[in-house]
């Protein structure tokens, strides 16, 4: 069975849709497991090559599965290319704001902020890895965080973790140039600021899960990121999935899904 069903089938409803900012796309879906908690949290960031036409709805399937396994999930929506303020830096500002908003949510919900793992798919994998790396941004920059929420670990599912390489290979029909406002030669600082590869080592556990038959984002991107991280001495590992494409990693019915769950547990 194709994993594309996750894009076309309505997901189970969230427990609550909550705004983390004042703008239209600054909200997230919160799901809580049974029991009193406090619950470990998976911060979920959907993919779609940062484009406005792809939203968080399809990520509800994996969120519901993880919540059924005892994890609270906080699935972020954010401004994307095609929205007012989407792209660089607005998209990054939104996911940072949404992540740090977990501190506010924890005042009224049983969340364990000492066990927060970020997980993202495709472009969301880029954003999850960037969240894990943002403490590496130089002070004084527009996206340097004053007091970022500390993550326990990060999982990239077929993530676009190297933006210069993604530009060179014209992934997503050249969307990286639109997302960052130009090619690397014109806006090099934006690539250095936004690309997880440029911010290595991250200094926290990282698991990159990627199908060997992914024709949307090549598995070699994750493999190269992991090899570079190992050279830095970073706690990073790559889980390659023989025969899997781009969407099996977000399909809770797929044979690959248990390996994603294991990656989450390993980072907690």
UniProtKB/TrEMBL annotation:
InterPro entries: AB_hydrolase_fold, BD-FAE-like_dom, GDXG_lipolytic_enzyme. Transmembrane segments: none annotated. It comes from the Bacteria. GO terms for molecular function: hydrolase activity. Keywords: Hydrolase. Residues 32-225 form the BD-FAE-like domain. This is Alpha/beta fold hydrolase. It comes from Pyxidicoccus fallax. The lineage of its organism: Bacteria, Pseudomonadati, Myxococcota, Myxococcia, Myxococcales.
């Amino acid at each position: 069975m194709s994993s594309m069903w996750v894009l076309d089938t309505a997901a189970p409803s969230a427990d609550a849709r909550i705004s983390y900012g004042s703008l239209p796309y600054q909200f997230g879906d919160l799901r809580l497991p049974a029991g009193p908690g406090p619950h470990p949290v998976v911060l979920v960031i959907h993919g779609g090559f940062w484009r406005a036409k792809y939203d968080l709805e399809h990520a509800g399937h994996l969120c519901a599965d993880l919540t059924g396994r005892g994890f609270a999930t906080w699935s972020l929506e954010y401004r994307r290319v095609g929205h007012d303020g989407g792209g660089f830096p607005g998209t990054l500002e939104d996911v940072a704001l949404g992540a740090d908003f977990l501190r506010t949510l924890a005042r009224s919900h049983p969340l364990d902020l000492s066990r927060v793992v970020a997980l993202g798919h495709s472009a969301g994998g880029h954003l999850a890895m960037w969240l894990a790396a943002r403490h590496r941004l130089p002070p004084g920059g527009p996206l340097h965080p004053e007091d970022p929420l500390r993550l326990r670990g990060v999982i990239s599912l077929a993530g676009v973790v190297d933006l210069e390489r993604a530009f060179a290979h014209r992934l997503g029909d050249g969307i990286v140039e639109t997302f960052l406002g130009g090619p690397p030669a014109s806006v090099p600082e934006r690539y250095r600021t936004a690309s997880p590869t440029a911010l290595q080592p991250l200094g926290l556990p990282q698991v990159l899960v990627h199908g060997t038959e992914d024709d949307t984002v090549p598995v070699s991107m994750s493999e190269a990121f992991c090899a570079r991280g190992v050279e830095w001495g970073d706690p990073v590992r790559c889980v390659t999935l023989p025969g899997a494409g781009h969407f099996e990693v977000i399909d809770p019915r797929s044979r690959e899904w248990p390996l994603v769950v294991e990656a989450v547990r390993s980072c907690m």
